[in-house]
Amino acid sequence: MQYLYTAYSKDPSNGDAETRIFYDILGIYSLDQVERAVRDHVAESPFFPRVADIKKRIQATQVTVDVVLSEIRKVISIPMGKSWSRKDIHPVSYNLLKELGGKMSAGQISNQELEKKVKMKFNYVVDAELTRLGMKETPQVESRRSGGSQQLGNLINGVVK
Q1: Cβ atoms within 10 Å, residue 92
Q2: What is the Cα–Cα distance from 109 to 136, expressed in whole angstroms?
Q3: Which end of the chain is more exposed for a tag (fewer CB within 10 A), N or C?
């Protein structure tokens, strides 16, 4: 947080409360992912970031919703009897396809409904994928809410590897 306060010449008088909010929301991501997103934001924006700005940047490093939608449509368009491999598409696309009930179920809904469902589930699936890649074990939701600040704080202090 000190990096942000310095970069934007902001008074850190609300620093503790603001830091807890950032840690609570961003605690599911690795320290490296958060630092990279913060540096990118500082380089590109004249405004102090909201937590959502940093979260969006982290998620965007994984894959975009348009790419996922395109890959799901590609899989759906494969005729029955032809094979495809989960290695042909991004892991987020594959997990979203599973969330939609698989190729057959996703293929039976309208294009508009497919787009709506993909956009609705996208952030959840990307967060799950980033958490899987960035941490050895997935944090429980209740511990993230109650101890998210401590979790990212421990990462910053080098307690958790």
Answers
A1: 22
A2: 36
A3: C
Distance CA 116, CA 110 (A): 10
pLDDT at 83: 86
- Mean pLDDT computed over 87-108: 90
pLDDT digits (tens, 9 = 90+) for 115-150: 999 999 988 888 887 777 654 444 444 444 444 455
Question: Is 90 found in the same domain as 38?
Answer: no
Question: Residue 64 is inside which H or E element, if any?
Answer: none
* Residues 41, 21: Cα–Cα separation, whole Å: 18
**Domain span including residue 88:** 65-131
**What is the CA angle 50-67-44, rounded to 5?**
35
Asked if residues 26 and 152 have their Cβ atoms less than 8 Å apart, the reply is yes
Q: Do the beta carbons of residue 67 and residue 122 sit within 8 Å? A: no
pLDDT value at position 116? 94
> Tell me: the pLDDT tens digits for 27-49?
877 788 888 999 999 999 999 99
Closest CA to 93 of 80, 110, 75: 75
Number of domains in the chain: 2
Q: Are 148 and 24 in contact (CB under 8 A)?
A: yes
> Are residues 94 and 107 both part of a single domain?
yes
